[in-house]
Design a protein that fits this description.
By secondary structure, this protein is mainly beta. It is built from 2 helices and 7 strands. The termini are far apart. The model has no long low-confidence stretch (mean pLDDT 87).
């Protein structure tokens, strides 16, 4: 919660590719990157990895933080901060398996401009995958107990 009472939701997502396709989740008419909210005590990187596994059945490692997206609706009733990682597949299997309500699919990069992704990161995904956009360092959990 912010000082004015606005709810702040944290989400961790991953950009996973296979050739010229990117992994997306279809939920009804909406498309999203695989991701979700971190569990208590879970790092953002671990959250992205777990969410990809739960929503697609793929084992990945979240490597670099690609970008951070912030979504604030016009009524300012909430705020979603999405930390989006570039992820590499550790295991590859033929069939994607999704949790209830999630339909994971490999979507060709050239189709991204024709679908609606939430948040609208369509134009950023190819730049991350082709290395034409600098990715930022994710420092992870920096907590250190005092000796």
């Amino acid at each position: 919660m912010t000082t004015d009472g606005t709810r702040v939701d944290l989400r961790c997502s991953a950009i996973v590719s296979r050739g010229s396709d990117v992994l997306l989740i279809r939920r009804g008419a909406d498309w999203v990157l695989p991701g979700g909210r971190p569990s208590e005590g879970e790092t953002l990187q671990s959250c992205a990895r777990r969410e990809v596994l739960e929503e697609t059945g793929l084992h990945v490692t979240a490597t670099k933080c690609a970008f951070v997206a912030e979504v604030i609706p016009p009524n300012r009733s909430s705020r979603v901060v999405d930390v989006i990682f570039r992820a590499e597949r550790i295991s590859d299997k033929g069939t994607l398996t999704g949790e209830a309500g999630a339909d994971p699919r490999w979507v060709p990069l050239d189709e991204l401009s024709r679908i609606t992704i939430h948040p609208p990161v369509n134009g950023y995904i190819p730049a991350v995958l082709h290395g034409s956009r600098e990715q930022v360092s994710y420092l992870g959990n920096l907590w250190r107990s005092t000796p």
